[in-house]
Design goal:
The protein is α/β, with parallel strands linked by helices and 285 residues long. Helices cover 45% and strands 20% of the residues. The protein is built from 11 helices and 12 strands. A 6-stranded parallel β-sheet has the order 6-11-10-9-8-7. α1 packs across α3.
Length: 285
Amino acid sequence: MINGVTLKVNADTYIMSALREDITGEDVTTNAIMPEKRQGKAELICKEDGIICGLDVFARTFELLDETAHFETTVTDGDRVTKGQVIGVIYGDIHALLTGERTALNYLQRMSGIATFTRSLADELYGTNTTLLDTRKTTPNMRLFEKYAVKIGGGTNHRYNLTDGVLIKDNHIGAAGSITKAVQLAKEYAPFVRKIEVEVESLAQVDEAIAAGADIIMLDNMDNEMMREAVNRIAGRAQTECSGNVTKARLHEIAEVGVDFVSVGALTHSAPIMDVSLKNLVPIA
């Protein structure tokens, strides 16, 4: 599960990679107009309402370019912000402020967009017994940041990667020959502390997964009526997860069916960015 500590410990490698993508040689524009080092500041301004997320990543981007850079803000990740709100001021060498601007904003906008979208879906499940999950449908090399943003938005992380748990999907079942065989092999191989989840697409597969001793049964691309029957058959012998064709409009109906979890790939693969800008840069020394 991703949290603030995990983010801080692991973020630098990814941020540096993003900076290298943008600076293969030099920032020719900044070097042309700013031949000498000079301290400056710029305001971070929201251009729409939403949930802010990624402030530490934003600040760290500049710190990696300039050890004197520092960020002052009155908000924290998870706070609601409004259009036109000045949410902070970044100080540092103007070279670093100009060169790091786009990369820092890319992280902040993407993470805030995911947190905002996640919050809108989590609100639909408020008061129910169903937990909102993300998936591994993340942007390459952005998973750490995107899954953290889901948490900030009120969602819960599913597996971070393939090491985190056993999830037997349709192609695993095909490779093993059956659900029964796949679960048997997983129990023999995986440490006892790991739960075994099985993806099913029919009621017959639900029955097989129950008999095989699956800990979690993922109900894949089922309509509400079939899911309700599946939950009744499972009868608490395994936890249940709904996946596939999940929209915001369906969330409350899915919760009423009685599943324990609902996973939504759109949290990370389809969330729009939240527009935030760095403005009013001025020299201060």
